[in-house]
């Protein structure tokens, strides 16, 4: 076919070039034949963010010194993701984890334990009970309520 010299026919061209509709095929032919331009089909990748939704996280405990403690028996994927997002958006919060058993794998069959995951991502952790030393520390410079007034890092709260 004249408009598709590399291909057996226009349907073959559509399959090879990945056209999803007759309109794309027609415009490809129009660009090449009528406009006398090269067909630059789906060469770009444009990154975009899906509009975000705001969620809330309610920590288990706040010590008087401003240290936040989350206790976890099961350290599920959703919880891990949530804590990474909160840590990234509120880097001033001092969130620590207390696991029922720190050597438990993060998922069935996983080699990574809860403790290893916490170490890798910079979370202080303990096993079974909140260490008395945590309560004796001076805590973060800014208390959680001050930090939370600023909203999540990189986002404006007007959208909420």
Overview of the molecule:
It is built from six helices and four strands, in the order ααββαβαβαα. By secondary structure, the protein is of the alpha/beta class. The chain has two domains: 1-48, no CATH class; 61-159, Restriction Endonuclease, CATH 3.40.91. A four-stranded mixed sheet has the order 1-2-3-4, covered by helices on one side. It is elongated and about 80 Å long. The termini are far apart. The mean pLDDT is 85.
TL;DR of this structure?
The chain has 6 helices and 4 strands, in the order H-H-E-E-H-E-H-E-H-H.
Question: What topology emerges from the helices and strands here?
Answer:
Layout (H helix, E strand, L loop, with lengths): L9 H8 L4 H13 L26 E2 L5 E5 L4 H13 L5 E5 L14 H7 L4 E3 L4 H5 L7 H6 L11
Parallel strand pairs: 2-3, 3-4
Antiparallel strand pairs: 1-2
Mean pLDDT: 85
Number of β-strand runs: 4
Largest sheet: 4 strands, mixed
Query: How many structural domains can be distinguished in the coordinates?
Result: 2
How much helix, percentage-wise, in residues? 25-40%
If you compute it from the alpha carbons, what radius of gyration comes out, rounded to the nearest whole angstrom?
27 Å
End-to-end distance, in Å?
Answer: 55 Å
Order of helices and strands: HHEEHEHEHH
CATH architecture call of the largest domain: 3-Layer(aba) Sandwich
Question: Widest sheet: strand order?
Answer: 1-2-3-4
**Continuous helix count:** 6
Which regions have little confidence, pLDDT < 50, spanning 5+ residues? none
């Amino acid at each position: 076919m004249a408009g598709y010299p590399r291909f057996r026919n226009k349907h073959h061209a559509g399959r090879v070039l990945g056209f999803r509709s007759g309109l794309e095929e027609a415009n490809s032919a129009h660009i090449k034949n009528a406009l006398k331009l090269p067909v630059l089909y789906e060469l770009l990748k444009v990154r975009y963010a899906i509009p975000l939704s705001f969620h809330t996280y309610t920590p288990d405990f706040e010590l008087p010194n401003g240290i936040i403690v989350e206790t976890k028996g099961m350290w599920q994927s959703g919880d891990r993701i949530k804590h990474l997002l909160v840590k990234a958006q509120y880097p001033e919060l001092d969130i620590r984890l207390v696991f029922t058993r720190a050597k438990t794998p993060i998922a069935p069959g996983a080699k990574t334990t809860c403790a290893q995951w916490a170490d890798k991502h910079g979370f202080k952790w303990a096993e079974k009970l909140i260490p008395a030393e945590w309560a004796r520390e001076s805590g973060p410079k800014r208390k959680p309520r001050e930090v939370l007034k600023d909203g999540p890092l990189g986002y404006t709260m007007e959208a909420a």
